[in-house]
Write a structure and sequence with these properties.
The chain contains 21 helices and 22 strands. The protein is an alpha/beta fold. Helix 1 packs parallel to helix 3, helix 12 runs parallel beside helix 13 and helix 17 crosses helix 19. The longest helix has 23 residues.
Length: about 575
């Protein structure tokens, strides 16, 4: 099972573990054998052992200490320092190493990499690259960071992978020991060039650094020394933190499902919801995956039902449209009932299409649509740590691929918007404890942003939501929400009305109340779907937001949510 790995590093000099900053100022820390024993017991995923002066001193790695370290641990051990020949590989492997790290030796003799890969396998060969920025270029350094080779680091790493390196340990000299976070720019640049596991080294200062690191694609492990050696952070505490934040569990879920489906783990999208801060147990998920895979089919309703929590209504829709004479389809399922507020919230939306459209245009379509749909929904003003909208396309409709704006893209956007607006209305109408769907339509705004601001403010107003629950045409609460929205509007031009299947009642004209029948208004506002109509009389821009009423049941549901 492949997960993100936490790897402590033993930099060894003269038989002792040492640590410095930016590869300088080396200070004695501890006995390597004792530290290896402690890290093995603490739950480290692997251990790295570097004889940091072997290359600089032109000698072979000290094997006596290595043998003692290997005898104390039961986790994978990577060893580097003074590795110049295949005989060096053989020697450290016989001492108990599982993988061998090459750096200066490979720079002197690049053929060492393919030769070692052929004899011992790619998985045994780890390229350790000490990299520093020089004149805007990522440059490779040798001999423990002491010698600038003049080589472009990205080109060197890519070459090594092409010729047999099965893993990269990227040591950022710029961030080494400074504890300000991993060198994410450098790591992203390398990840864009290779498709083998990358170990990030240099810069770890706190647990949040690892969490940020593991959100970057292509990074498989975080390596650190000082923060572990000095007990500023324990491996156990770090793993508990990462687990609580879902990193390791998410990675395991991806790996397990990918294995069963025979696909890449990078093609698996993980979504979850539940009690915030409560770690997920991988065991029931792992146990359930085979059954889920075996039951895959065309029944979207089962999938839509499967993701419901406090939802009371199924949320699914599909539409059919024509692109270039080909029939295309776009469908979606959603979950969302509480903690719903722009920008999204406890909302899971899965959209699929068989339309052929490029990844770039698909992203453009989704980003543009979400800002006007899902980000305009509010149930209770509370956001969540869990939200996502995913749009997948397989191109099986057979239409000419949409690669640029135009008529075909407009048709696709119309289909997408039809689906997303429907799901928005279903989510809002199914708000926790809700009895009414509210739709706030703002017209006549000077700008689109003003229209959006006003619509959001009104739909989020607790007082307005409570008034709608009570079927009370309290238009003053609407104007109040417009006023505190911060939007640049002229209150003396604002008109307000309420509409439902029972009719329309105007309640405000030019910012002032007008006579209306309370009885008629009551009938209109007693319906399950109500429109709040706001005319700003300042331009032609429009916007719509969706929400629901605020009821007694909302408090009941959330008062005992965990029990």
């Amino acid at each position: 099972m492949i997960t993100k790995r936490i790897i402590p590093c033993l930099d060894v000099r003269n038989g002792r573990v040492v640590k410095g900053t930016n590869f300088e100022g080396i200070k004695d820390v501890a006995d390597p054998v004792e530290m290896a024993r402690l890290y093995n017991a603490a739950g480290a995923d692997e251990l790295v052992f570097y004889d940091i002066t072997a290359s600089f001193e032109g000698r072979a790695l000290f094997t006596e200490i290595l043998t003692k370290v290997a005898s104390e641990i039961f986790i994978p051990l990577t060893v580097g320092g003074g590795i110049n020949t295949l005989e060096d590989f053989d020697r450290v492997l016989k001492c108990g190493a599982d993988k061998v790290s090459v750096n200066s030796g490979a720079l002197k003799n690049p053929n060492l990499i393919p030769a070692a890969a052929q004899r011992y396998g790619n998985q045994c060969v780890v390229l350790s690259a000490d990299v520093k920025r020089v004149d805007g270029q990522f440059r490779v350094f040798a001999k423990g960071g002491r010698e600038d080779t003049g080589r472009d680091a990205l080109d060197w790493i890519a070459w090594a992978v092409d010729h047999g390196a099965g893993e990269i340990c990227l040591n950022s000299i710029d961030t080494d020991g400074v504890r300000t976070g991993f060198d994410l720019e450098m790591l992203d640049a390398v990840a864009a060039r290779v498709n083998v596991p990358i170990i990030a080294s240099g810069g770890a200062g706190k647990k949040e650094d690892f969490l940020e690191l593991f959100h970057h694609k292509g990074i498989d492990a975080g390596l650190a020394a000082g923060i572990f050696h000095q007990k500023l952070l324990t491996i156990r505490d770090l793993k508990e933190y990462l687990n609580a934040n879902g990193v390791e569990i998410a990675e395991q879920m991806c790996a397990l499902l990918a294995e069963k489906l025979g696909i890449s783990a990078d093609d698996v999208v993980v979504a979850s919801t539940g009690v915030i801060g409560q770690p997920l147990d991988i065991a029931p998920i792992a146990a359930g995956i085979p059954q889920l895979v075996a039951s895959l089919g065309k029944d979207s309703a089962s999938a839509a039902q499967g993701i419901m929590t406090t939802d009371t209504k199924l949320k699914e829709i599909a539409v059919e449209f024509q692109i270039g004479g080909k029939t295309c389809h776009l469908g979606g399922i959603a979950k969302g009932s509480g903690m719903i507020h722009p920008n999204m919230a406890t909302m899971l939306v899965f959209l699929t299409t068989d339309c052929a459209i490029s990844a770039e245009m698909l992203q453009q379509a989704l980003s543009g649509d979400v800002s006007e749909t899902f980000n305009m929904v509010s149930v209770d003003g509370d956001t969540s740590t869990n939200d996502m909208v995913t749009l997948l396309a397989n191109g099986m409709a057979g239409n000419a691929e949409i690669t640029a704006p135009g008529a075909d893209f407009d048709t696709f956007m119309q289909a997408l918007n039809t689906v997303t607006v429907y799901l928005c209305r279903r989510i809002a109408g199914d708000g926790e404890g809700a009895t009414k769907l509210l739709e706030c339509k703002v017209t006549g705004a000077a700008t689109h942003e003003i229209a959006k601001t006003v619509a959001k403010s009104v739909i989020c107003s607790s007082l307005t939501k409570a008034a709608m629950f009570g079927a009370d045409a309290n238009w003053g609460r609407v104007l109040c929400a417009i006023g505190y929205s911060g939007a640049d509007v002229d209150v003396t031009k604002i008109d307000v009305a309420f509409r439902s299947p029972k009719g329309t009642v105007a309640v405000c004209k030019n910012g002032a109340g007008i006579p209306f029948s309370e009885e008629v208004a009551k009938k209109i506002l007693s319906e399950s779907e109500i429109e709040i109509l706001i005319e700003l009389n300042a331009g032609s821009a429009v916007s719509t937001a969706w929400g629901c009423d605020l009821t007694y049941d909302y408090v009941k549901i959330n008062g005992d949510y965990r029990t």
